[in-house]
Amino acid sequence: MARILVVEDDEWYRALMVEMLRQDGHEAVEAGDGVQALAYLKSNPMDLMIIDMLMPNKDGVDTIMELQQLGMAIPIVAISGGRRAVSAEFNLESARLLGVRAGLVKPFSRADLRGALAEVME
């Protein structure tokens, strides 16, 4: 199975995703924002990253751009939520423009998460 870094500022949501991934046999680790994610990735190679697009300190767009500048190619699933679906879709479109192949609007189901993982791990 895959080594997956879950980057999400909402502690409850992050823990839920990590638990689902572990139940599916993946090795899942977590970071609360892009700053923590980048620090972790510099010394710990991962197979895939799930990243929230809106976070304090360093959001998803800035994190993805910095990964690209560092030459760190990692498949990414972008996630976004909020009160307005339009905002979430805008955030996911921003991720797609940066080369992210899969995105999910929160809340999403376990099946949706599995589908997005399969899409980027092809």
TrEMBL record:
<dbReference type="InterPro" id="IPR011006">
    <property type="entry name" value="CheY-like_superfamily"/>
</dbReference>
<feature type="modified residue" description="4-aspartylphosphate">
    <location>
        <position position="52"/>
    </location>
</feature>
<dbReference type="GO" id="GO:0000160">
    <property type="term" value="P:phosphorelay signal transduction system"/>
</dbReference>
<dbReference type="Pfam" id="PF00072">
    <property type="entry name" value="Response_reg"/>
</dbReference>
<feature type="domain" description="Response regulatory">
    <location>
        <begin position="3"/>
        <end position="121"/>
    </location>
</feature>
<keyword id="KW-0597">Phosphoprotein</keyword>
<dbReference type="InterPro" id="IPR001789">
    <property type="entry name" value="Sig_transdc_resp-reg_receiver"/>
</dbReference>
<protein>
    <submittedName>
        <fullName>Response regulator</fullName>
    </submittedName>
</protein>
<dbReference type="InterPro" id="IPR050595">
    <property type="entry name" value="Bact_response_regulator"/>
</dbReference>
